Amino acid sequence: MKAKSSFLLKLLVVQCLVVICVAQDFDFFYLVQQISDLISKMQKEWPTLACPSGDGYSFWEHEWEKHGTCSESVLDEHGYFKAGLVLKENSNLLQALTSAGINPDDGSYSLESIKDAIKETVGYEPWIECNRDANGNRQLYQVYLCVDTSGKNFIECPVFPHGSCASSVRFPTF
């Protein structure tokens, strides 16, 4: 009986894995179908900055799975990415930073001045994530802002993760 139940368990695991893999492939292609009219704009405005850089599809799938599904009851995939593009266009964080004299010029800026410049533009405090450059210096990596489930309005973030930036942050060129 043990051999039979072991075989059955393996069969069930294989069936589950096949279903998961098929579902993931289907979801990926479904996502691409849903956002096909946005792809060229997303490649320009919402690229993956990972090295080596790809075409963005895996990155966008990750963004939907991790963040977009939070608003799934209100926004489908197309609505989520469209809302993200509109928010980016309307808030223009790079313009907010450069207007405050904070430029992507490999210079160092105070973390507070970066946060203040962004808060001035969007009305809410961002969470800033830093990583280290090749020389071990802390540099600006990502800016996090919270958005309501409609995807239209910034909101106060309920919690910020533990900080990864020093009081002075390098803003690398890109």
From TrEMBL:
The organism's place on the tree of life at top rank: Eukaryota
The keyword Repressor is annotated on this UniProt entry: no
N-terminal signal peptide: 1-23
Gene3D superfamilies the record matches: Ribonuclease T2-like
Transmembrane regions listed in the UniProt entry: none
GO cellular component: extracellular region
Gene Ontology BP annotations: RNA catabolic process
Pfam families recorded: Ribonuclease_T2
Keyword Ribonucleoprotein assigned: no
UniProt entry keywords in alphabetical sequence: Disulfide bond, Signal
Molecular function as annotated in GO: ribonuclease T2 activity; RNA binding
InterPro entries: Ribonuclease_T2_eukaryotic, RNase_T2-like, RNase_T2-like_sf, RNase_T2_His_AS_2
Family, per entry: Belongs to the RNase T2 family.
Protein name per UniProt: Ribonuclease T2-like
